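Q: Could you fold this chain for me?
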Amino acid sequence: MKKVFFQKYTLLLCNILFIVPAIAQHKNKIDRKALVERHNVIVNSTNPLSALSLGNGRFAFTVDVTGLQSFPEHYDKGIPLGTQSQWGWHSFRDTAGYKFEEALKKYEFNNHSGTYAVQWHSPARNKDASDWFRQNVHRLQLGGLGFEIIKKNGSVATIEDIKDIQQTLDPWTGEIRSHFTVEGNAVDVWTDVHQEMDLVAVDVRSALLKKGRLKVTLRFPYPTNEFADYGDNWKSPEKHSSGIINTSNSGALVYHQLDTTRYYVKFGWKGNASVRNTAVHQFLLTPGSASDHFQFSCLFTAQKAPLAIPDFTATRLNNREQWSKFWINGGAVDFSGSTDPRANELERRIVLSQYLLRIQEAGDLPPQETGLTYNSWYGKPHLEMHYWHSLQFALWGRPELLERSMNWYFHVKTKAEEIAKRQGYEGARWQKMTDPDGNESPSSVGAFLIWQEPHLITFAEAVYRTHHNRAILNRYKNLVFATADFMASFPFFDKAHDRYVLGKGIIAAQERYNPEETYNPTYELQYWYWALSTAQQWRKRLGLAPNKKYAEILKKLSALPQKNGVYLTTESSPDCYNNPHLESDHPSVLAAYGMLPYNKRLDIAVMKKTFDLIWKTWDWKDTWGWDFPMTAMAATRLGLPDKAIDALFMPIQTNTYLPNGHNYQDARLRIYLPGNGGLLTAMALMCAGWDGCKTTNPGFPKNGKWKVKWENLQRMF
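A: Sure. Below is the predicted structure, expressed as structure tokens.
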């Protein structure tokens, strides 16, 4: 009897260890402050790629070497000096009366007739309509807040006049300290962003203040209606309006009106100062000349601001308290003592990626790929990237930050159900390129992608594994089941082969395939199987009977396609490793055993051979930032830790991490936050492992060169 009890107790303990967040195996706790601050970012030049950002997850403010946004034109081809908030959206007036139905095109796939929002090329009316709904709404650059510095001769200083630059971003405190000189006059600036308000607070010290030669400007740009928006478009002043609503001895309120969008900027200061309108859409904050020390705050808000706003001291205190909690309570990885020359750089990327994702992407909406710095794809979220942006929050002990954007799915569920219905399916088909209200944006790729669909189940399961309580099941069950209902209705039953087929009518995660020809992509098949299995598990946890349709799909879902002993990207592309075009973009077949765990459908020996082939033959120059951590995850699960580290350091441009931590892609995407999020997701797997993994730090070589300490990371599935 005692033996049976002991066996049951041991089994229960093992199960618990697999579902609760993992903890470090080391007795000595990580010195988190030392870990973070050894990766402070130091800037000593005006390199356009060196701009630094502050933020609170819902609002971000990016600065140049002056600590404000004094020279935006210099940075617009680097890291732009953006001011963006999750509430800041705008649409141009629709003078043509476009209807969304004009962007829809009818297709028939597998006896399902429906309409898809695509990019039309002709006729002109449909093209214009699809362009309109693709471009509107777009995210706003809210305003440029910079210094106006007057030289001895009365001219305004340029970027070339800024000398002796010493600027530091301290991620531990969330503060930027900037020092520079102009004509030998020192200027010292401390810049903070409030963690509960869209507010910038600044402390300035310089003799130039007493000389009346250092002032603050606020300029309102006009949106570009282009793929990107850098916040320095001063054209078309007649198309928007702005002005001062009121002023007092301690502050001023300014408005900006664009079509039907109106928002406000509230100034607050200590001492004597004044605000006046000096040019169209330009306002000048002039400090009194009695002191060489000036503090002010600037709140961006969609509503009229309160009478008083937090000053610099209160903002700095709030900022430091919140950042300290962030760094102390979440996950941490420490490579100190390692002798592999890549260890310090990997640690730097990990620390700065946590910082960047916290300031740019911890909001109430799925993020855009360039966060809250500048627009890409008009500032709209891409839901297939939500996994790479945000899953890491749960894995790094911060599930509440993931849940902020998960709640958005409740808001847009009805529109996702409408998409599924007009295409002949059940449940909710989650949007690909979308906006704050869940409106679908026309996209000839996005309309046919399906790998964003299971992400919601992944998020819900990750949060459940963190808390492991029924409240989580009840909170997200309707989203999980609506997702699974679509997934169960989507596959086509192939009677001749007694199987369910994914496609046609899809584009694989590797966006190289014609939707009208593509079926059974390996990664999507595995993701479908995992997600429907997990949905069934949720039903069991809730005391519900298994869903018969889910069970039918799981039983007869097509096998993973193979040829010559390797997995194909899709069953419909047997030549995928003999066609150079199909050996570029995302090597997503690796995600089938990188992002996803093992199941009985997978042959690990075949996946190992597939990995080796892709490693040797793939056009790695034509890939994206998250492909490298995805590859590292596959290598880790396959027991190839050397390859996992090599993948993270593959010398490819899109695997570049700038001194400020940003993952650089190319001249169009100078920052790419899915790469940063992918890195953190890979680190959780490489350190904490996954369910059933018995190897300590499975993603790191056992050659004596890596000393790996970590805390508060959650195992992967």
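A (continued): Residues 1-21 have pLDDT under 50 and may be disordered.
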